[in-house]
Amino acid sequence: MPVKEFLSIKELSEYLGVKPKTLYSWVSKGVLPHYRIEGLILFKKQEIAQKMNSYKVEEDILIDRKVKEFEDEFSL
């Protein structure tokens, strides 16, 4: 069976684990790369994966942020 290159709102919703309403919001805000074909919204799976990777938060950044919050809270 060939791999699907494009996903519908419903398919992407299941793939990402978010509600379709959230995807429509992200589309209207320009958050996700998408294609419109006569009202049909489609997403290229590879482009979505790249976009999601751009939101990846590195562990070191989180650790630095937590240390800073701790220092600020306790005036260190």
General description of the model:
- The chain has 76 residues and is of the alpha+beta class.
- The chain has one domain: Multidrug-efflux Transporter Regulator, Chain: A, Domain 2 (Orthogonal Bundle), CATH 1.10.1660.
- The protein has four helices and three strands.
- The chain has a three-stranded antiparallel beta sheet.
Sum this structure up briefly:
This protein is of the alpha+beta class. The protein contains four helices and three strands, in the order E-H-H-E-E-H-H.
Set down the secondary structure blueprint.
Blueprint lengths: L5 E2 L1 H8 L3 H10 L5 E3 L2 E5 H10 L4 H15 L3
User: How many domain regions?
Assistant: 1
Give the low-confidence spans.
none
CATH topology: Multidrug-efflux Transporter Regulator, Chain: A, Domain 2
Shape: elongated
The main β sheet shows up as: 3 strands, antiparallel
Quote the average pLDDT.
86
The CATH architecture: Orthogonal Bundle
The fraction of residues assigned to DSSP E strands is 5-15%
Structural class: alpha+beta
Question: What order do the strands of the largest sheet run in, or round the barrel if closed?
Answer: 1-3-2
| Portion of residues within helices | 55-70%
SSE topology string: EHHEEHH
What's the total count of β strands?
A: 3
What is the end-to-end distance? 59 Å
Supply Rg. Answer: 18 Å
The total of helices stands at 4
Name of the CATH class: Mainly Alpha
